[in-house]
Amino acid sequence: MKAFSTALAAHLAGGATTLAYCWRIRRRDGAVLGFTEHDEDIVYAGTTFEASSGFTASQIQQGLGLSVDNFTASGALSSLAINETDLLAGRYDDATVELFWVNWADPSQGVTISKGNLGEVKRQGLAFTAEFRSLSSRLNQPVGGIYQRTCSAVLGDAKCRVDLSHSAMHGAAVAQTAGIARDVVVTGLSAFASDWFTDGVMSFTSGANSGLSFEIKNHLRTSGVDIIELWSPPEFALAIGDVANVTVGCRKTFNICKTKFQNGANFRGFPHIPGNDRVTSIATRDTPGMDGGSILGN
């Protein structure tokens, strides 16, 4: 049950109300933004909620118990605080969201309606749709370790312990390809072995894609020319001379961990776990043969 202040409860009981929805978003990079459906800015709980931000919300449904409460917020890139680059870079993914009901005529009166996180953020042209997921949605996520052949750690995290700040773990690549394509010809990586950056990350520091990162599918070298193949094409057209920081990749196998990174002691997988062939195999026994020996039966 929501706890209303005495003043807000009296306002709700008065018949006509002056209430508006306000959203406060805290991104993973620490940036805090406020938006409201009202036609004027509202200052509440230390945050200025911007009006005319293009935000509209779907019907809000909430239930008792641990059921997951979701709604969607859609809008256009009409707010200067929201830009296409931040959306594409994933800075709003899993951002913390607080939804308030505020009396715009007296902003000291307000109540928290819901808290949660942004789910999938979809973009089409200058419009976007963001899914809100309540705190109970976290209960749907798996907790604990998974037994698998490949490593479960993220390269460079506290479990992996590989130092990605070392000069051998990253390089500066200069694009020699213009336009939008998954295969990017680059210079600047001749000091690294071919395939070194496969499964790594390409993060642009200049050009139209500055601030955006893309996963690398393959790092190839043909006749001395380095080619970075991305899993998906860049969002904006590349220009010759665009610079990107390229981070080493890991295929997460024990052999790669041991030979490429000399990090076998921190491998977080189970390379000797039995496979499906072992699960589906059947028991065998020795069957006496006609010559007095035995035949191995299956």
Task: Describe this protein's structure.
With 298 residues, the protein is mostly beta strands. The chain contains four helices and 17 strands. Strands 2-1-7-8-9-6-5 form a seven-stranded antiparallel beta sheet, with no helix packed on it. The protein has a six-stranded antiparallel β-barrel with strand order 10-11-14-13-12-15. The chain has a two-stranded antiparallel ribbon with strand order 3-4. A hairpin with a 2-residue loop joins strand 3 and strand 4. It starts with 5 loop residues before the first helix and ends with a strand.
Q: What is the structure about, briefly put?
A:
InterPro entries: Phage_phiJL001_Gp84, Phage_phiJL001_Gp84_C. The protein is mainly beta and 298 residues long.
Keywords for this structure?
17 strands, flat, 2 domains, 4 helices, six-stranded antiparallel barrel, seven-stranded antiparallel sheet, mainly beta, Phage_phiJL001_Gp84
